[in-house]
Amino acid sequence: MDEFARIQYWTSERQSAHWQHSRGTVLGIGDDAAVLDFNSAQDGIVGERRQLLVSDTMVEQVHFTEQTMRDEHIGYKALAANVSDIAAMGGVPLHAVVSVCVPATWGPERMKSIYDGLYACAEQYGVAIVGGDTTSSPAHLVISVSLTGAVEAGKEIMRSGARPGDVVFVTGPVGLSAGGLHVLQGASANKRHAEKVSDPDCRALVAAHQQPAPSILAGRLLLRSGICHSLNDVSDGLASEAWEIAEASGLRIVLEERLMPKSGSMSAYASSVGSDPLEWMLYGGEDYVLVGTMDRSGVTALKAEFHRHGLPFYVIGKTEEGSPGVEWIPLPHGWNGRNSGVDEMALLRTSLPKRGFNHFGT
């Protein structure tokens, strides 16, 4: 197949013209440029809106290997990473363009599986795929997705809005994706370890890594609450995202180990392989839950609203005036939930290192 035949094979009859029009698409795949009408998009936004634009790239051997991702999961995750960025602003995803650099080792059928995953994610989150680019690659597959979104004008939630006295929250447990990656890498390296993949706990971790769930509904609930002051998605690790909020907002964030939600599946697997689940929770990344800060007075009502929608919500710390940074209060030795008060624990603060996934870090 030539380039145009392949594009037709991968994208034709995936999304109806009627559905694309409902997302504000005037002209999609098939011309030199897509034509979009954001004002006609049925996105639930009333009144004046602003456009959001995000982009993310996945590279073979950097973000995935044949041992860690099936082809359809690569496509799914490439779009999901962008959807998560829209969620972190409180927005609604709308239109995606997808560019792929394809080596000879990836034939049309494998690439069709990539697009199967892309369109599965698009269907789940209401994204119209409206174009892109295709080129050859000398060695590895590269897939780059750019995504538009919309948000109520002036209500977008940024990293820079945290205030001293806020509580810090997450919209789900963290560390599962890193645990899933550990499972998959271990299974690839050790046949005895491969047996663990079939365990229910491990299957949950693997699913979290291969098909993460961006937090669009959580982001919308936070925006509508009017009391969420800052927000970030956990893509590079909780510690890294907390540092980004602290630096952007010019304050100190204090996280408490006793408040951190810890997945039972992750804890059980970590214990079985002698790993520290906190390392995955703080520095693993790719969980795509949201971390942010909000007015303390609204926690009870917002938590109830989250639970009404079947979503988790956890307070994990607070913000303070001070030099930008992130501090950590670990569990004191022998702490069992009853014999150590907050005042005592405050004496045990340590600085949380600013690290996480960084392409150019040392």
UniProtKB/TrEMBL annotation:
Mg(2+) 2 binds at D56, D85. Mg(2+) 5 binds at D236. Keywords: ATP-binding, Kinase, Magnesium, Metal-binding, Nucleotide-binding, Thiamine biosynthesis, Transferase. Mg(2+) 3 binds at D32, D85, D233. It comes from the Bacteria. The keyword Magnesium applies. Mg(2+) 4 binds at D32, D85. GO terms for molecular function: ATP binding; magnesium ion binding; thiamine-phosphate kinase activity. It catalyses: thiamine phosphate + ATP = thiamine diphosphate + ADP. One of its GO terms (biological process) is thiamine biosynthetic process. Substrate binds at H63, E286, F357. PANTHER family: THIAMINE-MONOPHOSPHATE KINASE. Reaction mechanism of ThiL seems to utilize a direct, inline transfer of the gamma-phosphate of ATP to TMP rather than a phosphorylated enzyme intermediate. NCBIfam families: thiL. This is Thiamine-monophosphate kinase. It comes from Paenibacillus paeoniae. The lineage of its organism: Bacteria, Bacillati, Bacillota, Bacilli, Bacillales.
